[in-house]
Design a protein that fits this description.
Helix content is 10%, strand content 40%. By secondary structure, it is mainly beta. It has seven domains: 24-225, endopeptidase domain like (from Nostoc punctiforme) (endopeptidase fold (from Nostoc punctiforme), Alpha-Beta Complex), CATH 3.90.1720; 267-329, SH3 type barrels; 343-405, Roll (SH3 type barrels), CATH 2.30.30.40; 417-479, Roll (SH3 type barrels), CATH 2.30.30; 491-553, Roll (SH3 type barrels); 565-627, SH3 Domains (SH3 type barrels), CATH 2.30.30; 639-701, SH3 Domains (SH3 type barrels).
């Protein structure tokens, strides 16, 4: 007996429009194209000897039903089995786009070709159509039979159960009943190992008998009568996938179908699945039912931004306009109304118009969904100022209730101004909320900007006085640009608030004053990483380089030197009398001071000129920086130098030989020859010496 793989329920958290599905639909076919073609050829002979025989038996026994609705449904199911070239798998609308189907997708597909809207989720099939009573499995001598088969009708949907993890039953498989053949029920549905993943089951002795869950009837009364027509269920052309996992192995013959009636009237359809229809334009109102995928609801009008008014089951209903769930087809063009300037209209129903920009003020009336009110201006973020019945009124700017048709004319100002974002904002006599309050800025009022005093305050002109208003964009907005101040030389300004200026580069030194607001001081130099040297009230002062508190406007010109020099990276660095931290300390290098480099003595020390003496300072780039390049030394012939530190010179090519001396720092010795792989032969103080060739310690320089 062929075994059918039970359908797997796929739950999708998003309702996706068909065009989006096509682009990024998750699909899980059971086979690859190569496997599907191999399986097709491998099982074709078995299909010919089983399904083909059962098809012939069906047509011989039930040929008289060929022109009935039920007969057409079965023939369409057979057509997909012969011409659909599907492979078994799961996915939303998976056959339409990829030629992949499971049991519920197949059943939905067949009935959908006759304008029946049913689910593609197997476990929901107990709600499909109406249940057929009187059919149940019985066990006779260890084999299962169906009792009450006389109650079955061709085209019925049979469902089978399986267990959830908690032991409860759920529908795991569905198929279409095609009559009694060989004394047993016959159903057509998915069979993963068949050539096109579809097959006929004609043996209910075991699983298919024991696990029958229910019988559901979708076809109407009279569906087996070849003389009866059903105008709502005219046969459509079968679905041809946009792509295949199993490419068609033979020519596909499309069955002839009656010409489909074309609906040119505006209709509302769902993008996928079902969408609720309500009695009123509110999800809190009564629910009339669900508009299923593929169903068409006559469109009456767009009630407002959120709801379509439709004809639904002989009643007026309301369905969402959200394009994620619904779409309007055959929409009649709406005649555009030419307004003589911007106007305000409602999005539906009515909206109150008030005498002042407050819900507590007197109500002048209501603007209905067909009326328009000429716009005077947008008073603030919450209110439009409009003309209403010869008076000036105020109506909400909330786009849930109103819409602006046309554009707000832009106001022009001679210089940068400040406006409120809505409501009112206080203006103070100095940059502090505890200072005297000069007044308030509200609605459409503006004040001219003098400067941005600091991060928290604008300096503005208010009623002939200088005032201060918050820079917080939650309350104010700047229209236009505050012109940047120009300086002849680099300056320091605060980023906001005030910053102390000291007499020396230390917070514990004398405090000369503070820099605040739009004040600026001229920069003399960047003394070190932590301090700028500035000119303040005729004195030299020091201010922090911390960008949290200060900002440099312009560039400090780089100092030029005649030869290579050493500067600190910040702070101070000691200079010693010899290349050792335990040597005499000659002094320190700090701030913007520089010393001339004589040589790089070794990897750890520069040799420098300091106060007329030769000194040594660290090469560690954490503390010092070399500006310029140290000229390379020129030698008359090849020499040997150390890579840093010191290296011993021996009287013979052995570390056990006599020690003649050491080579260190910038010293070099003439190279006589490379004695062997381990030793150089050198001239050391007029004597032959030997020094290691190990490049970890020495290097040869040849000009």
């Amino acid at each position: 007996m062929k075994q059918l793989v039970l359908c797997v329920l796929l739950i999708f958290s998003l309702i996706i429009q068909p065009k989006q599905i096509n682009a990024a639909l998750p699909v899980t076919p059971l086979y690859t194209t190569e496997q599907a073609i191999e399986l097709y050829n491998q099982n074709l002979a078995d299909y010919e000897s089983n399904e083909r025989l059962l098809i012939n038996q069906y047509r011989e026994k039930y040929g008289h039903l060929e022109n009935s609705l039920a007969g057409k449904v079965i023939e369409r199911a057979i057509w997909y089995m012969e011409n659909g070239y599907s492979v078994y798998g799961h996915g939303l609308l998976s056959y339409h786009y990829h030629g992949v189907m499971d049991c519920s997708e197949f059943t939905k597909l067949v009935f959908g070709d006759f304008n029946f809207i049913i689910t593609d989720v197997s476990r929901n099939y107990a709600t499909v159509g109406t249940p057929v009573e009187g059919v149940k499995p019985i066990n006779i001598d260890g084999k299962w039979k169906l009792e009450g088969m006389e109650n079955l009708r061709i085209g019925d949907i049979l469902t089978w159960w399986d267990f959830e993890e908690d032991g409860t039953k759920y529908i795991s498989h569905v198929a279409i009943y095609m009559g009694e053949l060989n004394g047993q029920p016959a159903v057509i549905g998915t069979a993963p190992d068949n050539p096109t993943a579809l097959g006929i089951i004609n043996n209910f002795d075991y699983w298919f008998g024991e696990n029958l869950f229910s019988v559901q009837r979708v076809l109407p009364e009279g569906s087996t009568d070849p003389t009866k027509e059903f105008s709502k269920h005219i046969e459509k052309e079968p679905v041809i996938p946009e792509s295949y996992v199993l490419p068609p192995q033979n020519e596909i013959i499309i069955p002839e179908v009656p010409e489909q009636p074309v609906n040119t009237n505006p209709i509302v359809m769902t993008n996928y699945g079902w969408v609720s229809v309500y009695e009123l334009p509110s999800i809190n109102s009564g629910k009339l039912g669900n508009l299923q995928f593929g169903e068409e609801a006559p469109y009456i009008r767009q009630y407002n931004k959120y709801w379509y008014e439709i004809q639904f089951e002989n009643q007026v209903g309301y369905i969402t306009t959200n394009s994620k769930y619904t779409n309007l087809k055959n929409e009649e063009p709406v005649e555009e109304i030419d307004y003589d300037g911007p106007v305000i209209m409602t999005n539906g129903e009515w909206v109150g118009v008030f005498k002042g920009p407050s819900l507590k003020s007197e109500r002048l009336g209501n603007l209905s969904d067909t009326e328009k009110a000429p716009l005077i201006r947008k008073y603030n973020n919450w209110w439009y100022e409009v003309k209403y019945n010869g008076e000036t009124g105020y109506i909400t700017t909330n786009t849930k209730y109103t819409k602006l048709i046309g554009e707000l004319p832009e106001e022009e100002y001679e210089g940068p101004v400040i406006k409120t974002t809505g409501g009112w904002v206080s203006i103070f006599g100095s940059p502090s909320t505890s200072s005297k309050k000069l007044g308030a800025l509200e609605g459409h009022e503006v004040v001219g900007v003098i400067s941005q005093y600091n991060n928290w305050w604008y300096e503005v002109e208010y009623n002939g006085k200088t005032g201060y208003i918050t820079t917080n964009t939650k309350y104010t907005k700047l229209i236009g640009e505050i012109p940047e101040e120009e300086y002849d030389s680099p300056v320091i300004k605060t980023t906001g608030g005030w910053v102390s200026i000291f007499g020396n580069p230390s917070t514990s030194s004398e405090k000369l004053g503070v820099l605040e607001g739009q004040q600026a001081v001229t920069v003399l130099s960047q003394y070190n990483d932590w301090w700028y040297e500035v000119e303040y009230n005729g004195k030299t002062g020091y201010i922090t380089t911390n960008t949290k508190y200060t900002q440099l406007i312009g560039e400090i010109p780089e100092e030029e030197y005649e030869g290579p020099v050493i500067k600190t990276t910040g702070g101070w660095v000691s200079i010693f009398g010899s290349p050792s931290t335990s040597a005499e300390k000659l002094g320190v290098l700090e701030g913007h001071q520089a010393v001339t480099v004589l040589s790089q003595y070794n990897n750890w020390w520069y040799e420098v000129e300091y106060n007329g003496k030769t000194g040594y300072i660290t090469t560690n780039t954490k503390y010092t920086q070399l500006i310029g390049e140290i000229p390379e030394e020129v030698y008359e012939g090849p020499v040997v130098k150390t890579n840093g530190g010191w290296v011993t010179i021996y009287g013979s090519p052995s570390t056990g030989g006599e020690k003649l001396g050491i080579l260190e720092g910038s010293q070099s010795v003439p190279l006589i020859e490379k004695y062997n792989s381990w030793w150089y032969k050198v001239d050391y103080n007029g004597t032959y010496g030997f020094i290691t060739t190990n490049t970890k310690y020495t290097l040869v320089i040849s000009n």
